[in-house]
Amino acid sequence: MSVVSKAVDYIKKIANDQKHGYSQTNRWGSPDTWSDYDCSSLVISAYEAAGVKVKTAGATYTGNMYSVFTKCGFKDMTSKINLSTGSGLIAGDVLLNHTDHTAMMISKTQLAEASIDENGGISGGRVGDQTGQEIHIRSYYNYPWNCVLRYPVVKTLPTLDKTGYKKGQKTIGVLALKQLLLLAKAKGLITAKLNNDNNFGKGTQKAVNELLKKWGYKQNGIAGKRFIKKLGGQLGLKK
């Protein structure tokens, strides 16, 4: 199961379980106990549980989600989405209003969100969902959202040429490599700064060398066939 599928399953489970309601006071809930979330802790917890360590990396509320999520590999897809209609959205997309609210798409047309407690407030209510609407699933709407963040989906290892990839290359293969590296960063395997593009630059070289050093290999900055295979194995990907 992919990272995105795990995050979607987590948030759907919470939304469909009356043990979980809304609270900004006691907001870091647990899926197996009577506990509450607010809008940001729900989305953050879903991806943290799926293996993308956004909470560990410092995401705590809507105001810092963008910086932390993009640091952990999420891509800003806002320019490709019609926020009025929701056209272009897919399951796992994070809808973010930097000041007030966040939610997650669970399909192309539906989202899950933590909204408000049974008293119409943000704290002081009873634990759990007293109304059936404190945390719920509904059709897409524009809150309005400032942006849409998407986690890259990589299911299989990329095809690699005979010489591997190194600094200065700009190819589709490099893009696939960098998506693997972004997954590795999200799982805490590396710390190098990476962009989700097809350019093998200094950041990519640093990320490759981080892994080579971790594995006890010579740090030559080259991602060859054995490098890709080993990284794929650590990420649980198939050939």
Key terms for this structure?
about 240 residues, 6 helices, alpha+beta, six-stranded antiparallel sheet, two-stranded parallel ribbon, about 30% helix
In words, what does this structure look like?
By secondary structure, the chain is α+β, with helices and mostly antiparallel strands. The protein has six helices and eight strands, in the order H-E-E-H-H-E-E-E-E-E-E-H-H-H. The chain has helices at residues 3-15, 39-49, 62-71, 172-186, 202-214, 225-235; strands spanning 20-22, 35-37, 75-76, 94-97, 101-105, 110-114, 135-139, 147-150. The strands form two sheets. Strands 3-8-4-5-6-7 form a six-stranded antiparallel β-sheet, with helices on one face. Helix 1 crosses helix 2 and helix 4 packs parallel to helix 6. The longest helix has 15 residues, at 172-186. The radius of gyration is 19 Å and the shape is elongated. It starts with a helix and ends with a helix. The mean pLDDT is 90.
Task: Please render the helix and strand layout as text.
Layout: H1 3-15, E1 20-22, E2 35-37, H2 39-49, H3 62-71, E3 75-76, E4 94-97, E5 101-105, E6 110-114, E7 135-139, E8 147-150, H4 172-186, H5 202-214, H6 225-235
Parallel strand pairs: 1-2
Antiparallel strand pairs: 3-8, 4-5, 4-8, 5-6, 6-7
